[in-house]
Every structure is written in C-alpha cells, then in structure tokens.
Amino acid sequence: MDILKSLKDRYATKMFDKSKKLSEENLMTILEAGRLAPTSFGLQPFRFLLLEDHSARQAIKEFSYNQSQIVDASHLVFIQVKKKIG
Q: Taking residues 14-22, what's their average pLDDT?
C-alpha cells in the first residue's frame, strides 16, 4: 500500500444514513484498535467514551458547531486524554 496515496485519499463523512447502525462487532473492533494504538512509553493516556443516547447527543450538538453527524451517526465516541501523567 502506498502510504502517501492513502493519506491523500482520506475522507471525512459529512452525512450519515440514520437508518443504518454500525454492528456491535465492528464497533468493538474500532474501539479495540484505538485501545491498542501505540503511544509513547506504552502509557495509553486516554480512554474512549461511547455515547449512544440520542437526547444527550442532541443536547451537545450546539457545542459541536451544530454538526448533524453528532446525532445522525449510529455511535458517538469521545476520546478523553489525560493532561497529567503521574
């Protein structure tokens, strides 16, 4: 695989089909891939927060520049990063 070509071909999804939902298996694969991502000293100073509740997602939409993806995607994952490691 040509890495530079892959980086140039990246795609940001602007719209989601509300009728489709990511399978549990694919969701777990994505979260596990993130958990296993390499970090300096192997510290993994982050955690993933999964928000599926539609009303909560609607409430935070305004803090995301009113992007429809916040409520239209089947899952919303936050990455929480520790600022201090001790």
A: 91
CB contact at 8 A, 20 and 73: no
4-30 b/e with 16+ CB inside 10 Å = b?
eeeeeeeeeeeeeeeeeeeeeeebeee
Residue 10 pLDDT greater than 80, yes or no: no
Please state, in angstroms and as integers, the Cα–Cα distance from residue 36 to each residue in 28, 41, 47, 59, following that order: 12, 13, 11, 31
Residue type for position 6: S
User: Taking the domains of the chain in order of start, what are their residue ranges?
Assistant: 22-81
- Amino acid letter for position 52: E
